[in-house]
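mind reviewing both lines:
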Amino acid sequence: MFKNKKKNKNEEAFLDHKTKKTWEDAKTGKKCFMLYARSLYVTWGAREYWIWNSFKDTSDENIEVAKLSHVCWLDVRGKLKISELSPATLYEVVYEVKLTKGASGWELPVKLRLSLPNGSFQERQVSLLQKPRGQWMELNVGSFHTPDNEDDETGEVCFDFYQHGGHWKSGLVVKGAILRPRKPEPSN
C-alpha cells in the first residue's frame, strides 16, 4: 500500500531554493527574484542537447546551470506571477548567461521578449558574437511597471530568450533569469 507522503516545510524550502531565490533590494526594500535554469522551460532540454551541471553560486549554494551542447533551435522561457512582485515598482528582467571559450554558432543575434498580462510585449535583439567569453553577463529583456494596487495584480510576466534558426549553436551557459527593481538612470 502506498503512503501519502507530505513534504515538510523545510524540504519544500530546500527544493524551492534550488530553483528560485528571493530577496529584498537593499535600497528599496522591493522583492527580487532569481529563477535558476531548472525553473525555466528549456526547449530540447534533454541530455543530448544540454548538459545540466552543478554550480556553486555566490551564496555558497549548489544550483544547476544549463550548458548548451549543440542545438539549432534555442528557446529558454520563464514566467512569474505579477502578484509575487512588489506593487507600484518599475522592474527589469535580465538573463544571466555566459559563453564558453569554445562557443560557436552565434553569428546571428538572439531575441529577447517580454510579455505582460495586458497583452503588450517588448522585443529586442542582441548579438553575442563579440561578447566576452568565460564570464557571466546580463542580457536585458525589458522593463515593466507592476500595478499600484495589489488587488490589480493578476496574470504573469513572461520572458523568452531565443534564436530559431537552421544553424547549430554551442557553448552557452544559462544560470537563470533575474527580476529586480530597475535602477534609475543617472541624471546629468
